[in-house]
Amino acid sequence: MIEQKIREIAKELLLKKAVDLIIGFGEGSLPLRATPLFIRTPEETDRLIWNSFCENNLATYLHKFNRFKVGLVVKGCDARSVIALYLEKRFQSGQIFLIGVPCQRMVDRRKVKKAVREEILHASEQGDSIIVEGDDFKLSLERDDFLYPCCQACTHRTPKQANVLVGDPVEESASTE
What we know:
Number of strands: 8
Strand order of the largest sheet: 2-1-3-4-8
Distance between the termini: 34 Å
Largest sheet: 5 strands, mixed
């Protein structure tokens, strides 16, 4: 399972003191949301998650930790952002350890909320479905119908620049431009 492998890698990096901090994703306080998570101890790594709600580009937090060695969980688009920051000399070589996760594409929570039109109290994934629940309903939605447009068109889903890749690379589609 990808989530478990991310946790194992993060824990090992912190135990070996290869990094001072892991930036990854944790459970959000709202349904359909993951939140950035900043892990400093091996014991905290079991809070890391991975799912189709991990939409944030965690590279945006690197400037706050430019004096630390950071392990960063990245999708293909995030890894490209890190490379751009590196080319701008925003951090030094070897300062960032990229934990790459081939992206299954991210769910646009606004599309889900618009389709459901009721308060969603809980959301989860089961295979290719998103299960949303509220006070008086439980719906199964086809995940691919609720992806961000940029994710639908993405041609760089596997972070090839990663120091370690968690999971199998995904087949890249040709650009439609």
